[in-house]
Here is the input.
Amino acid sequence: MSSPRIMLVGAGSMGSLHARVIAQSPIAELAVVVDGREDAGSALADRFGAQWRPTLDGLDDVDAVVIAASTEAHFDLAQLVLEAGKPLLVEKPVADSLEKTLAVLGLAETLGVPIMCGLLERFNPAVMTAEALIDEPKFVTATRHSPYAPRIRTGVGWDLLVHDVDLASRFLGGEPTTITGALAQFHPMSVDGAEDVAEAVLTFDGGRVAHVSASRVGQRKIRSMSIHDLDKLIEIDLLRRDVTVYRHVDQDTDAEGRGYRQQTVIEIPELVTGREPLAAQLEHFVGLIAGSVDADAERKSILPAHRIVEALKRRAGAAAA
Here is the structure.
């Protein structure tokens, strides 16, 4: 199969990253950049030798589409792409509500068109390494905090929390049986209903638990996750892309009984890959286009994170009413 010709919709910060990765890839071709802003769209297209178009018209000359436009535009754009029969990679969230997300995924299933969501942390080398080390995880904690970013119009639930609830549900095996938590809005620049802090506690079958925290009112960027097996702790730094494994050996007081002493074995495993997550995600998408990735499984894997975020937002909203 020749390299698929890909149309990119959106020339913003995330779209620019996708454009670079697609253009540099040996297995894909950046054919078209779509953005209603000529200055941004044509500049990005020119930089990577692609064609610029102001609107999503005419998909006959491309093989697949990546949508990196604003979240509010995802629903309408995704429907146009799927109705044209083109495989789709849409940035998270698929749409700005669970109802719309279900409609998009239902359309993809009905038409038999592959769809993938840009849950990028799945392709983080540290996450992929940790997945290979996990045996029987019982407890997951995750922290995703950032300084304020006014461009996030939907709040941290859909922008930040969605990544870690996706990973937690994958590590702990499916969708949670109960979802509790809270949302809070503090910043004067945030639009009404766009939460600045989200805290979620997820309970899974067998009593397994995940505690996930997201914030955009932090003073530094934190991306960390801890996965607790009964015999080890796996810590992931998703920014540095490294993994540390701790195995407790013994604990006691010191010789004079005045302090605490612990013996722990620390392991720093070699990463299973050093690839940039966006490049690994693109390779997965090309496999989806070619049919070597299971399209049904990929589509179904999108739903748990979206259901969790929507449930948290609804319950927190009901509690505040």
User: Anything to note?
Assistant: The longest helix spans residues 303-320. The two ends are 55 Å apart (CA to CA). The chain has a mean pLDDT of 93. The chain is about 35% helix and 25% strand.
